[in-house]
Amino acid sequence: MPGFASDDPRAQVRAFEGVVGAATATYRPHDPESKRPVYTAIPISSNYAAFQGVVSIVMALIARRRDGCRAAH
User: Fold this and answer.
1) In Å, how far are 34, 36, 55 from 30, measured between CA atoms?
2) What tens digit of pLDDT does each residue of 38-69 get?
3) Residues 8, 9, 14, CA angle at the centre, nearest 5°?
4) In whole angstroms, how large is the CA radius of gyration of the chain?
């Protein structure tokens, strides 16, 4: 799954937990003086991406069943 939209300047950037977390401001500097981000023990960005992927697949399957359309090969 891509981490960014195809028209986003970061479209070619590999999206993994740290990149997506930084892009969504999940990891912010805890102390403004240090500028070092504070990380969470829970991979929030990865879990959310997985959830969105599953929802997208289910929506596509529902639409295919409802409309009777098949993807072009």
Assistant:
1) 8, 7, 33
2) 777 888 888 888 898 899 999 999 999 998 87
3) 90
4) 17
